[in-house]
Design a protein that fits this description.
Elements: H1 2-23, H2 29-71, E1 79-80, E2 86-87
Length: about 110
């Protein structure tokens, strides 16, 4: 009876170890490749979502910066006064060249 009990205990203990031994079989190259492809797809999707979120966040700021840069040629070079004030003058509009046959603001033709 004691031998049967010992045998039952040994079998009960050895079954989990044999199951672990079967689980430790290294994956086949095909299984490894499929796992790598799955992880690469997950990483790609995460990167796409992150970039899309970044573009949505930064896009309006870049638009505002672009408009600011477009406005720079409208101003003269800033002047620094002796008291430290900085003056930024708007450039004056250049007069339009007069082309014979064109009319001015008053409807008069230059001759």
């Amino acid at each position: 009876m004691n031998a049967m009990r010992s045998l039952a205990i040994i079998l009960a203990i050895s079954v989990p170890f044999s199951a672990n031994a079967e689980e430790r079989v290294p994956p086949t190259p095909q299984e490894r490749l499929e796992e790598l492809e799955r992880k690469a797809d997950e990483l790609s999707e995460t990167a796409r979502a992150t970039i899309e979120e970044f573009v949505n966040l930064i896009g309006p700021m870049l638009t505002r910066l672009s408009r600011l840069i477009d406005d720079l040629p409208v101003y003269e070079t800033p002047e620094v006064l002796p008291n430290g004030d900085i003056i930024m003058r708007r450039k004056r509009d250049k007069p339009k060249p007069i082309v014979p046959g064109d009319t001015d603001e008053n409807g008069l033709t230059e001759t």
